[in-house]
Amino acid sequence: MDIFELVKAAQKRIAGHAHVTPIMTSRTLDRLSGAQIFLKCENFQRIGAFKFRGAYNAMSQLTGDQKKRGVITHSSGNHAQAVALVGQLLGIKTVVVMPDDAPPIKRAATEGYGASVIEYDPADASREKISKDLSIQHGYTLVPPYDHLDIIAGQGTAAMELFDELDSLDMLMVPCGGGGLLSGCAVAAKGKNQNCRVIGIEPELADDATRSFHSGKLHTVKNPPTIADGTRTPSLGDVTFPLVREYVDDMKTVSESAIIEAVKFLFYRTKLVVEPSGALGLAALLSGKIQPRGRVGIILSGGNLDGTTMKIILDS
Ligand SMILES: *Cc1c(COP(=O)(O)O)cnc(C)c1O
What pLDDT, on a 0 to 100 scale, did the predictor assign at position 250? Predict the structure, then answer.
């Protein structure tokens, strides 16, 4: 199957529903890096993160019967909000299984869009099992956060827009949790511009995908204590792992302090509010983990963080 075609189809499907987010530049960043940096601002996407793209692409393709029965998902936050909002837009009932330590702002937003939230303790229960059991019991369709081609293709539209607007890039840096955004963006990048080097970025504390990428064997990190809560997923998935191996050129990790510095830089220097997961690409750049050259795209994947977390970051 040609996955690039799926990304193109997703771009048509979400047109007029998702925002075409702005691409920002910063002379300070260009000067610091010696390259031309383009920031793709998914913090300005609907629900404040790219996950609206995948959720809309997946849910708009459900059959009438599936839509009537409703959907279920498990998520640490942004995917939940995306599913809830798409459900509201398309008139689909949504149920979200969420860890009991999820950031309050994310839970409140999810409920605000009309989803029912079911809590679980991430230390003992498996969210996959809970949502699977409920989906069987009630006939809900499962909308997974990353390991599904419709989700991956939707997330890839963020990179498509970068290439549509900028024509060519020499490098693209993408945050990685379960690898939906990274694999979709890598497929899009290679489809548009074969020579663009695609690099996935993870927190050091959640380096499962980096180790999986380099070893070819799937590694897992359980409940990693990283501040980048959007990347706390235990591992790449059955669908994303092979795609990351095939389309991504390299993976790098960044320290917690580098992530914090990147969020601060975005706030003070570029006036952008970006959550820790969203700042991973910039963290890799500012901490010297990648050698930038030419035209470099960085996906700022989201901007949902509460005031308490932002204060801790800005004060540190
Ligand atoms: C979900 C998320 C990620 C990670 O995306 P995956 O598709 O799971 O790799 C990164 N940043 C933000 C802001 C997210 O919400």
Answer: 98
